[in-house]
């Protein structure tokens, strides 16, 4: 319902700190890409957990916007992350979101996060966004 | 088992990006404090969810270190956050962690996050850290 | 807003399979008690995880009813359980719920589950109930 | 590593109360089937949340056994369920598990639960099993 360009502009306004690039959106899902550099690393050269969760949070919002259109006041109500493998310190993170429920008031989706080029997920996130009631 | 000063130095090294200040540690818990400024805010003047999760993650690690001593390779395996209320955009965040299990390989704790000065939590987090096996 | 007796009758109707006894309700929380016998045990004499989650689910509902009155169509939307210690096979389970958010549409609470007589929790659960909109 | 028949016998011994039938196992996943009758229903003719979580728990264990062989003492450490839609009261529940990490000490998987014949999931579960260290 909203184009990739509209959504990218919207995300840049809503999450001014994010470095996420919207790669793909539609069909009940989204793919985002996030560079990894000094700001994202912990000692040992691994991407920090909160960075992974923030990428998942953006991927979910992008997928949601792609499905139901621009909803500025949607808020995350619940997010569960499982950290699976140590991410590479020298590769970007790719987040692939699939929505699993698009309700009137709640949207639930899951996100697999990968070090670019790998097919083993570094983390898995399930999150819920609450959609504000639409005024008539 | 470790002093507040030792832990603060350790956290500064392990999480070089964090702005968290260790306020209290011991008795199976910890309290951390995090300033809120431009970097932490989303439009509407509210603290972003990933910032809250990162504070909870640090509070858990601080509590863990206070309980079992310096464990450099502990990693978060699971983190569940419930976002409860809109945080104030002009107040710091305080994270209060209580450990609920300190096992040999897994440590579980919960963290209540507050806008400073309020007693209504803005978020609640439960997280698990895996402790690497000790070499003999 | 609802008495312990009203709530006990309501729970018996809503969860006809539960063996939970309502012990206490009010002040934003509730305590329930559940016997442990053959039906609840796994080999090795431990209470199964799903039994623990079902007790937590009831404790949350009881606390919610105590806070906002009889709401027949409330449904669990999210539940996260951490299993902490092996429950005793010969002791009842006690579930102690504290609500952490009572909103118009979502109620969030946490539940500590204990083997009766012990102060070390066997499991910790955080759950969310969605409240149906009230008709005017 | 273990056949469907071996696993079915094992599950019957480990979870004596379960009504789950193992339909498929292998390739890092499993499918289980659970009948729905009076014991599983709540008023309004819907399957209770704890029943759904118990099916997911079994599906995870089945997938785990299929991957790493018979491990009698594996225990669930964490389970997060999102309830998405009202299950039909007159249809069986099918649980489809996919493992997302098979580590030496932790196994993580996700389970989609469906009312038989539907492709819209009624619930989604992510869970972690801890594997006991192998004696040499």
Please state the structural category of chain A: alpha+beta
Cα Rg of chain A: 14 Å
| Secondary structure: number of strands of chain A | 8
- The count of helical stretches of chain A stands at 2
Strand order of the largest sheet of chain A: 1-2-6-7-8-5
Termini separation of chain A comes to: 20 Å
Which pair of chains has the greatest number of interface residues, and how are they split between the two chains? Answer: A-B, 27 and 27 residues
Uncertain runs of chain A are none
- Mean pLDDT across the residues of chain A is 92
Helices and strands of chain A, in N-to-C order? HEEEEHEEEE
Helix content of chain A: 10-25%
Strand content of chain A: 35-45%
Please give the largest β-sheet of chain A. Answer: 6 strands, antiparallel
Query: From the structure provided, what is the oligomeric state, counting identical versus distinct chains?
Result: homotetramer
The backbone outline of chain A, from C-alpha atoms, is globular
């Amino acid at each position: 319902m909203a184009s990739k360009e509209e959504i990218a502009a919207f995300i840049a306004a809503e999450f001014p700190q994010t470095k996420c690039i919207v790669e793909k959106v539609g069909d009940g899902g989204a793919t985002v890409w996030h560079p990894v550099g000094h700001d994202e690393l912990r000692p040992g050269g691994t991407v920090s957990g909160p960075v992974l969760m923030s990428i998942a949070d953006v991927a979910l919002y992008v997928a949601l916007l792609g499905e139901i259109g621009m909803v500025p006041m949607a808020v995350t109500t619940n997010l569960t992350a499982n950290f699976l493998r140590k991410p590479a310190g020298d590769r970007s993170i790719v987040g692939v979101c699939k929505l699993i429920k698009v309700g009137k008031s709640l949207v639930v989706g899951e996100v697999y996060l990968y070090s670019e080029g790998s097919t083993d997920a570094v983390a898995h996130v399930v999150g819920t966004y609450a959609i504000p009631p639409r005024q008539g």
